[in-house]
């Protein structure tokens, strides 16, 4: 039986770009690290763009220039007594070994390591990296092309990678992102039935669609939603659905309560 104190290896992964895998990596990491007391590390293995590395650099620059955000950051880090979580650049090939080495050498053992992985299974090392995850979360939207790609990807993970003798993967979870309240409920019911028929799992919580949820650090902003330095604004977190998502995420991954 797995020790629940073991560091969890988790990836938001998809074969379709633009569905939010990097965004959810940052959102979830920031909520868990800054709000809920978990120790988080992120490996940005999405070569060559490494968007999370660039996001953190941009966030740091903006926070230092925005007096409101600078005060928020100072209060936050003084209260929680720890630094921003590290984002480490790497390629998919060898990223598991790099993460294990980091954990072994860390004075404070991380509770979770998030991996932002490339969006194609043709990338060298990607299949081994996916097999080394404990949990994979795949965002989906009610778009036929995205659904087809996501379902094929999820079936590949479940039917091939999870059945490998050396796989650490416990489950792959799909979840609805960018849900527009004006869309027909029956459309989601049809898709949910299809997911169930394919033997796949879909989370109950959904993430709503709004331009406000894409708000990043800016020179004039007073609150943020997506940031590597600050957690999302509590009100936006609640109305977006991230609050319920995090509760379900913690239950699925069997993270110990802090």
TrEMBL record:
Classify the source by domain of life: Bacteria
The protein's matches in Pfam families, at most eight in alphabetical order, are given as:
CbiA
Signal peptide limits: none
InterPro entries referenced in this protein's UniProt entry, alphabetically: CobQ/CobB/MinD/ParA_Nub-bd_dom (IPR002586), DNA_Partitioning_ATPase (IPR050678), P-loop_NTPase (IPR027417)
Q: Which SUPFAM superfamilies match?
A: P-loop containing nucleoside triphosphate hydrolases
Q: Where is the CobQ/CobB/MinD/ParA nucleotide binding domain?
A: 10-213
Q: What is this protein called?
A: ParA family protein
Q: Which organism is it from?
A: Moheibacter lacus
